[in-house]
Amino acid sequence: MPQSPSIMTFRVLSRLGSFALVAVLCLGHSDDGGCGGSDEQEEEHEHEHGGTATGATCPTSNAPTAQNFGTAFLQDYCLSCHSASATGVARQGAPLAVNFDTLDEVRTQIERIDTHAAAGPGATNTEMPPANRPQPTQQERATLGQWLACGAP
Length: 153
Description:
There is one protein chain. The chain is mainly α. It has a domain at about 85-153. It contains 6 helices and no strands. It is globular. Residues about 5-45 have low confidence and may be disordered.
């Protein structure tokens, strides 16, 4: 049975209306790549928020170093995702360009690490590691803040 032109027009417009709604919603997210943005863009944006700078300071004596703190902390809490050797789902959304395999890589990310995982007098940041991963103690987060404040030696 042939359909009337008004029913056909209504069906076409209702489908276009749904499409228009999706398009408007995507445009609202244009700052992060919109709908269909690359996974890397989404991953980079996903971790940009972070917390507040901790205000941690480097102790004048017994300062943490890579040898007595940093290397073990990174191994225990960071490198399972933030390593160039971690790929795909093993990265758990960690941005591809954020790796902590070397101290130089850590040093380029000091502010980011501080606002995501460290503690100090100004803030305790617990965004990292993700909730489904082992978590550092408050003291470990405070020592991380100090280590970063020292420049991650």
